[in-house]
Specification:
- Chain A: It holds the Pfam family PTS-HPr.
- Chain A: InterPro entries: HPr, HPr-like, HPr-like_sf, PTS_HPr_His_P_site, PTS_HPr_Ser_P_site.
- Chain A: One of its GO terms (biological process) is phosphoenolpyruvate-dependent sugar phosphotransferase system.
- Chain A: It is found in: Cytoplasm.
- The complex is a heterodimer of chains A (85) and B (572).
- By secondary structure, chain A is of the alpha+beta class.
- Chain A has 3 helices and 4 strands, in the order βαββαβα.
- Chain A has a single domain, classed as 2-Layer Sandwich (Histidine-containing Protein, Chain: A), CATH 3.30.1340.
- In chain A, helix 1 runs antiparallel to helix 3.
- The longest helix of chain A is centred in the C-terminal third of the chain and has 13 residues.
- Chain A is globular.
- The N and C termini of chain A lie far apart (24 Å).
- The relative contact order of chain A is 0.33.
- Chain B has 572 residues and is α/β, with parallel strands linked by helices.
- Chain B has 3 domains: 124 residues, Phosphohistidine domain (Glucose Oxidase, domain 1), CATH 3.50.30.10; 101 residues, Orthogonal Bundle (Enzyme I, Chain A, domain 2); 310 residues, TIM Barrel.
- Chain B contains 21 helices and 16 strands.
- Chain B has an 8-stranded mixed beta sheet with strand order 1-8-7-3-4-5-6-2. An 8-stranded parallel β-barrel of chain B has the order 9-10-11-12-13-14-15-16, surrounded by 5 helices.
- In chain B, helix 2 crosses helix 5, helix 16 crosses helix 17 and helix 18 packs across helix 20.
- Chain B is globular and about 80 Å long.
- Classes of the chains: A alpha+beta (85), B alpha/beta (572).
- At the A-B interface, helix 1, strand 3 and helix 2 of A face helix 2, helix 3, helix 4 and helix 5 of B.
Amino acid sequence: MAERTVSVASEVGLHARPAATFVQTAAKAPYDVTIAKAGGSPVSAKSILSVLALDVRQGESIVIRAEGDGAEELLDELAKIASGS
Amino acid sequence: MTAGITAGDENTGTVLAGTGVSPGAGYGPAHVLAGEIPEPDKEARHDGDAAAERSRAERAVEEVAADLEARGARAGGEAQEVLGAQALMARDPSLAMEVGELIAQGVAAPRAVFDAFGRYRDLLAAAGGYLAERVADLDDIRDRVIAVLTGLPMPGVPASADEPFVLIAKDLAPADTALLSKDVVAAFVTEQGGPTSHTAILARSMGVPAVVGCAGATAIAPGTPVLVDGASGQVLLTPDPARVTEARAADEARRAVLSAATGPGATADGHPVPLLANIGGPRDLESALANGAEGVGLYRTEFLFLDRETAPSGSEQEEAYRTVFEAFPGGRVVVRTLDSGADKPLAFLPPPEEEPNPALGERGLRMFRRYPEIMTAQLGALARAAAGVSAKVQVMAPMVATVEEAEWFAGACRTAGLDGPGIMIEVPSAALRAADLIRAVEFFSIGTNDLTQYALAADRQVSAVAGLQDPWHPAVLDLIATAASAASAAGKGCGVCGEAAADPVLACVLVGMGVTSLSMGAPALPWVRAALSRHTLAQCRDAAAAARSATSAQAAKAAARAELPGLDALAL
């Protein structure tokens, strides 16, 4: 299981355009990808509604997890989107 | 009206009456905007074939998602992004899984869709702010999917049509109208709404005839040929072809009168009244110039940033401002600082707490008291953009209620290097004490929509009190006259930039009350220019006196109209 903890730097948090890009990227993986707020329960990173409902604001940390071929690269890409860098 | 008014001979010549809010004649088949999609029956079960029901639901979702994407691709730009995000929500795998689970338990597809969406709806609504606003997007998708599943007419307005249609609705929301163009809409008719409703403002800005407050309109059968007179407010069903030809000919004659009046705004006896355009950004410049605007009387800067999550940078602002300034070399451009709050909240200027009545809350200049750094940034960008252009740039603040606020804003403008600051007169306290406020600033601009809302205590967002939202009310006319006289006594200017200035009859009355310039949505400029050019200043003053002697909005308009014979040729 690959895992990243990312601090969300985008001023809009993980909403709007960053959320859409994040979900569309996660959806490319043939395996489960999850996202959770630090200490919270994980939800599917492929579900825009679940990701929005997490209500991740600027400065908050998220944990993303995936297991499968290329999971490390995928998480790197997702971390980059989420961090807003 | 319970029975539908159907197409056919029996209703030939049926006339419905409403309030004309955007003049001109429009003719086309009725397109009645579908009402709300009813909640599917709680107890509805499918026939037992869960797999078939599930694939029916999946196909409906995909049809809706694909349609949203296709509409986005046609619209392009901002709308494409919004509709694309909606398509992404429709295709949400977690949502599909929940719909599938409910169907597996025997729930019929429409109810399963309703309940599955409901869970996310509650989550987003509970989060508040930006997420709560996405609830409307989610409801729209849900209703579309249920419409496909149940065979109900699809909500929303078609973005294209073989021939322009007459759009009929109870009322129109901005979301209904995002994709509308003059090529598809011949006229608007709504059952609700008044002269300052969204429909009225939109119709005037598009130059499309419109009638609002038209009882019984939504009972018109789809497809019925409809002739709309946006001046008289008459809506004629299945008209005689001769009537249509006649109306079109009259419309053309009227347009000829309009195009005959050219040049700077002035009364028949040569009293100049600069005619300016209300704009929301550089995209409105083309229409303003095409309609002969002498400058900009209201640049609504918040429209540049309505959908923005973060405050725009100084250089981005500077560029948007300079584009507008450069379009009017030597002309006047009046910029209103960010007017956030109430009906147009800005995400980067959140109010500190939920306001029970946003119209009376922290909006306009009041928001700058909370976020002075945003004001400083905007005034700085304006000063930089104004440097080196020949346009006469003037800056004004919205929602000023007291002398102290006016002085505070004027001081900030001078610190930023902006000369001649002004304020809007929208709050009755500012109008009543205009003589005190004018000492703090160089000009007034009256925002009649808000002034009417506050004078009559009638929320612009509440359609039940739309009847009170009429700038012809003598109380509003008195407030305007008070502000105009105070400015005039101080040798300073007092413009009007609300919807009142776009009403050719009221425009004459405003000039008669001492208003020195008029600013409006660009398509109204030729009408107002023609109306002024056909009357002397003395006639305008008589019309103003007659209107202020009346005791109701209706009587005021009738009394003014009787003093303005030149409007006959404009069929107003």
